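Hypothesis: this fold can be encoded by more than one sequence.
Test: take the structure tokens below, design a sequence, compare later.
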């Protein structure tokens, strides 16, 4: 790995790459690509890079490239470069790509160096904050372990109160607090024993429509029915929690992505078979969208990152028609290989410039 910060430059014009490399190479390790697809496939080597991406390129525009990079490599710092005023593209890049900054061509060398330097400082602050948060989490975990040791004698007396505190009052499933504690425990087991762990994120489709049409009591009935279907379908040893609102999470210990995908499909079918009475004489069917992600000790991601990945995969199902299952592997392959997609929504217009 280079000692200097890495800057990844993406531009279909070779001359522009040469200019930017010449401006930045004294202070940074500069890597150049002429297409977004090529850069996305290579970014595994520089997951903390500063990424400068041109907007007008064939295949994928810059805002879509940066959106995909944001999902696959959230620790990058992303900058959009545009040679013309395109407010919708900038807004998309800000909202979907979460870019740090944008600047226009032609540019002064000093402006480019200043923008990259600001991005570098922002990256350093972000990484330092992450390190401090990890230290704080470790300290908190050690303090919790000490407290647990000192309160073992009270465990039996507090069992009922703890169960109430860790359960969701509506569905009877574990709640979000319990989920976070279980994720921590599974992370420790993962590091100690090396078993695979998979996560399934599920979200009720069109839940707001049920509430708006039939009222919140009907919405509660739907959530209870979905929770019961998930509880019946989950395997012994799986951990099922209500994550919040209409979202549910299944932790599948000792399970890889393939096994968790089969579980997710069974859950999807079980929920789809439910008939929920939302009003006297009114019965509705419900569907859910599910995302799957897995990790093991040798594969890098923490369970918190796997939770994020399962959420991104689930959201992709939402954007693709709902009532389905998508894995992180499928989402990663699509974002890394497809030349163009509707992943970034654009208004249909004959006047929209084409790169």
């Amino acid at each position: 790995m280079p000692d200097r910060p890495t800057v990844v430059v993406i531009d279909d014009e070779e001359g522009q790459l040469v200019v930017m490399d010449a401006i930045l190479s004294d202070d940074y390790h500069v890597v150049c690509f002429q297409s977004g697809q090529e850069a996305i496939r290579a970014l595994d080597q520089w997951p903390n890079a500063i990424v400068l991406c041109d907007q007008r390129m064939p295949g994928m525009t810059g805002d879509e490239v940066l959106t995909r990079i944001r999902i696959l490599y959230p620790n990058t710092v992303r900058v959009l470069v545009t040679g013309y005023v395109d407010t919708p593209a900038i807004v998309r890049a800000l909202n979907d790509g979460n870019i740090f900054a944008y600047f226009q061509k032609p540019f002064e060398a000093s402006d480019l160096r200043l923008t990259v330097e600001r991005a570098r400082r922002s990256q350093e602050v972000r990484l330092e904050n992450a390190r401090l948060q990890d230290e704080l989490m470790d300290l908190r975990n050690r303090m919790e372990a000490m407290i647990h040791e000192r309160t073992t004698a009270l465990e039996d007396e507090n069992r009922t109160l703890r169960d109430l505190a860790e359960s969701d009052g509506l569905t009877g499933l574990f709640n979000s607090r319990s989920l976070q504690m279980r994720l921590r425990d599974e992370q420790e087991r993962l590091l100690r024993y090396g078993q695979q762990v998979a996560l399934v994120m599920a979200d009720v489709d069109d839940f707001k429509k049920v509430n708006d049409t039939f009222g919140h009591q009907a919405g509660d009935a739907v959530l209870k029915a979905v929770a019961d279907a998930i509880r019946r379908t989950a395997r012994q040893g799986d951990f099922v929690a209500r994550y919040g609102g209409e979202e549910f999470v299944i932790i599948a210990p000792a399970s890889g992505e393939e096994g968790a995908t089969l579980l997710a499909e069974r859950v999807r079918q079980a929920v789809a078979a439910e008939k929920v009475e939302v009003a006297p004489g009114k019965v509705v069917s419900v569907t859910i969208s599910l995302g799957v992600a897995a990790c093991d000790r040798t594969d890098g991601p923490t369970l918190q990152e796997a939770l994020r990945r399962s959420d991104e995969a689930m959201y992709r199902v939402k954007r693709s028609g709902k009532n389905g299952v998508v894995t992180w592997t499928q989402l990663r392959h699509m974002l890394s290989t497809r030349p163009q997609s509707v992943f970034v929504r654009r208004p249909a217009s004959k006047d929209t410039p084409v790169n």
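The longest strand covers residues 197-204. Residues 345-355 have pLDDT under 50 and may be disordered.
Hypothesis status: open.
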